[in-house]
Amino acid sequence: MPHDVSNKSAKQSTANALNIAVLVSVGQHPLTARARRADQDARAVEMALTLENASVSLLHAGQQNSDHEEAIRGYLGMGINSVGLIEQQPHADVIPALANALRASAPQLVLTGTRAETGEASGVTPYLLAEALGWPIITGLAAVEKVEQGVITVLQALPRGKRRRLRIRLPALATVDSSAPAARQSAFGPARRGELAHQKAASELDEALSTWQFQPARKRPKRLKIVKSSSARDRFKAAAAKSGGGGGQTLNDVTPEQGAEAIFKLLKEEGVLR
User: Fold this and answer.
1) Alpha-carbon distance 225 to 7, whole Å?
2) How many angstroms separate the CA atoms of 94 and 61, rounded?
3) From CA 198, how far away is CA 147, in angstroms rounded?
4) N or C: the chain end with fewer CB closer than 10 Å?
5) Residue 196: its pLDDT value, please?
6) Does 143 score more than 80 pLDDT?
């Protein structure tokens, strides 16, 4: 009899477990530009792992190569046994593949970062996915307080450190940003032992993306100081005033050509002209 009670309790605990799917992407180190786990996605994994009685699975859709797989292993090092990899062709729209995979696994809660660190990084993927699934979406998730009777209570991060409590009926999709607790370090051993479960799925071409051209971003020019005054005298006084930076140069008794050359040099140094 005790053995039967134990089995019944274990089955009931499994049935009541919260099924969470975390969508992960390949990140990029801000200094070295090397592939790594994405910071916000790692925070989403950390949030899922800290929830009680939760069954966590990870899913990634995109083009596969050795650098990407090495970055994905960073999530395995957080204590995850396997990550589902949905192989997609270059310039593919991953929304249909992710939506089909989530319909098949039927999670109650889907977590993901607010935006990717590579590729388009537009931040619209969670919204398009929620629309495809017909689920509500929670943005700026900072913490999950409790889950009971199919309703999740969360704290949403607002500007200036404020928080708002929301109650959403599951299933739902939530985006996690930098306001959530930082992710644990990735352990080397579990990262190597974890499984990368490859999955085949049809690729649908993203026609808009295929026509885009990507190039490294350049530094934006500095904004020139705008003097807000209704008086011409005040505007002239502010324009002629010596800069507090101490790096200015005063030109006296110069020709118009020399003055124009000095102005042109300054504009190039400030990044206004290329």
Assistant:
1) 73
2) 6
3) 31
4) N
5) 92
6) yes
Sign, Cα dihedral of 107, 113, 116, 122 = positive
Amino acid at 152: I
Tell me the whole-structure pTM to 2 decimals: 0.71
- Which pLDDT tens digit goes with each residue over 212-265? 777 777 777 766 666 666 677 777 777 666 555 555 677 778 888 888 888 888
204-205 and 195-200 beta bridge pairing: unpaired
pLDDT at 216: 75
**Residue-wise pLDDT tens digits, 54-109:** 999 999 998 878 888 899 999 999 999 999 999 988 878 899 999 999 999 999 99
Cα gap 218→216, rounded to integer Å: 6
Name every residue whose Cβ is closer than 8 Å to that of residue 64 and which is 6 or more positions away in sequence: 85, 87, 198
CB-based contact 98:86 (threshold 8 Å): yes
Largest CA distance in the chain: 105
Range 134-139, long-range pairs (CB < 8 A, 24+ positions)? 135/110, 135/171, 135/172, 135/173, 136/168, 136/169, 136/172, 136/173, 137/172, 137/173, 137/174, 137/175, 138/166, 138/168, 138/172, 138/173, 138/174, 138/175, 139/114, 139/174, 139/175
Structure tokens at 193: 């032992």
Strands 163-169 and 151-157: antiparallel
